[in-house]
Amino acid sequence: MVYVDGTEQSITAVQYAICLASFSGAELIAHYVINTRAMEDLLRARIFLKDEQEDYEHDMESDAERYLNHVNELAVKKGLSIITRRSKGNVHKEIVNAIKEEDVDLLVIGELSRIRSRRDEFYDEAERAMRTVPCSVLIVKDEDRVWEMYESLS
């Protein structure tokens, strides 16, 4: 399974996961989590009004659809079938649940952002997922090399 969050790093992870699945014949799942926990925190802090939260959630659902369609196109270009999934909730918990439900043996994620403090580390959802999933984790780096590998697939 590859975690997609719309960042450049997650798209690089998708390209790498497509290469891995192509080389190994493995089934590939792309999973996008709509972070409703963050929205609830903003509502509780009175940064959002309820109507604004609903609009923002709708925008995030549209983003999820757009990114999962893009991921599907990347796979189809290389002759690979990909299963796309999305869920809503707390990101790291949703990733862990999806891995357990789908019996995933490898989580592929993009390069983690630089941690400036222990607090940042605690709130980085991808890092929390990496530390709590019951399977192996592959962190994809070197965007240029991954792009070359992806492009070389026929």
Would you count the extended β strands for me?
A: 5
Strand order of the largest sheet: 1-2-3
CATH topology: Rossmann fold
CATH superfamily annotation: HUPs
Oligomer class: single chain
Order of H and E elements: EHEHHEHEHHEH
Helix content: 55-70%
- Specify the biggest β-sheet: 3 strands, parallel
Number of domains: 1
Q: How much of the sequence is in beta strands?
A: 15-25%
Average pLDDT, rounded to a whole number, is 87
What general outline do the C-alpha atoms trace? Answer: globular
Label the CATH architecture.
3-Layer(aba) Sandwich
Radius of gyration in whole Å, from Cα? Answer: 16 Å
Question: Which class of secondary structure composition applies to the elements?
Answer: alpha/beta
Cα separation of the termini: 22 Å
Name of the level-1 CATH class: Alpha Beta
- How many alpha or pi helices? 7
Give unreliable regions as ranges.
117-122
Summarize the structure.
With 154 residues, the chain is α/β, with parallel strands linked by helices.
Q: What's the structural blueprint in terms of helices and strands?
A:
Blueprint: E1 2-4, H1 8-24, E2 29-35, H2 36-44, H3 50-77, E3 83-89, H4 91-102, E4 106-110, H5 118-123, H6 125-132, E5 136-140, H7 143-152
Parallel strand pairs: 1-2, 2-3, 4-5
Helix pairs in contact: 1-7, 2-3, 4-6
